[in-house]
C-alpha cells in the first residue's frame, strides 16, 4: 500500500459518540412535541435528512406548524447536544494527539454542518488537530458518493491512494474504497449489523480507536 499522506477522519460515530442521538432524534422530537408514537414512527426517519424527517412528521401527524418552524425545533435539539453534551469516543483525542506528534496531516470529513462540527470538536479538545474540514454541504456531495473522497483528495493535492479514511459507516467505507482510498473501519454501537461487511471492504477494521 502507498504510504499515507493524510488521514481523513469521520466525526459522528468515529470521533464523537453521537450516532445514538441521530438514531433516536425522531423519537426525541415527537416526545418534545408531546405527540404519542405507539407505532414507533420515530424510528422510520433514521436514514432521512432532518428536512425529510420534518416533512414526514408534518404529514403523518398533521402538524399545524410550518416546515421551517419544525426545522427550527429539531435544529435547536441537535445544536444543544453538539454545543454542550455529546462526548468524544474513548481514545479519540489520544489517537489524534499521537498521529499529530508523528507529523501526520489530519483532516475531517463530515455530513454534519461545519458550525456544529467545530463546536463539538472545540469543546472536546479535538478541533486544533485538523488542518481542513470537508462537509457534505460545502462539497455539495454526500459521503456515499466516491466523488466526495476524490474531490477531497484533489483539494489536498493528493491522490486518493495517499489518503486513509477512518469511518464507522458502511456506505462511507464502500465509497472511499471505490474512490481508491485506503480505509480503516471503526466499530460503533450503532453499526453492529454492518461490521462483517465493513471488515471485508476495509483495509483494517478496529473494535476501538485504541486498537489503531
How would you portray this structure in words?
The chain has 212 residues and is of the alpha/beta class. The chain has two domains: 6-18 and 87-211, HAD superfamily/HAD-like (Rossmann fold, 3-Layer(aba) Sandwich); 20-84. 44% of the residues lie in helices and 13% in strands. Helix 8 links the parallel strand 4 (163-167) and strand 5. Helix 2 crosses helix 3 (67-84), helix 3 (67-84) runs parallel beside helix 5 (114-123) and helix 7 (146-155) packs across helix 8. The longest helix is centred in the middle third of the chain and has 18 residues, at 67-84.
Helix content: 40-55%
Largest sheet: 6 strands, parallel
What is the top-level CATH class of the largest domain?
Alpha Beta
> By CATH's scheme, which homologous superfamily of the largest domain applies?
HAD superfamily/HAD-like
Present the secondary structure layout.
Elements: E1 6-9, H1 19-32, H2 50-60, H3 67-84, H4 92-101, E2 105-110, H5 114-123, E3 132-135, H6 136-139, H7 146-155, E4 163-167, H8 170-179, E5 182-186, H9 195-201, E6 204-206
Parallel strand pairs: 1-2, 1-4, 2-3, 4-5, 5-6
Characteristic key phrases:
single chain; 212 residues; alpha/beta; Rossmann fold; 2 domains; six-stranded parallel β-sheet; 6 strands; elongated
Summary, kept brief:
The protein is an alpha/beta fold and 212 residues long. The protein has helices at residues 19-32, 50-60, 67-84, 92-101, 114-123, 136-139, 146-155, 170-179, 195-201, and strands at 6-9, 105-110, 132-135, 163-167, 182-186, 204-206.
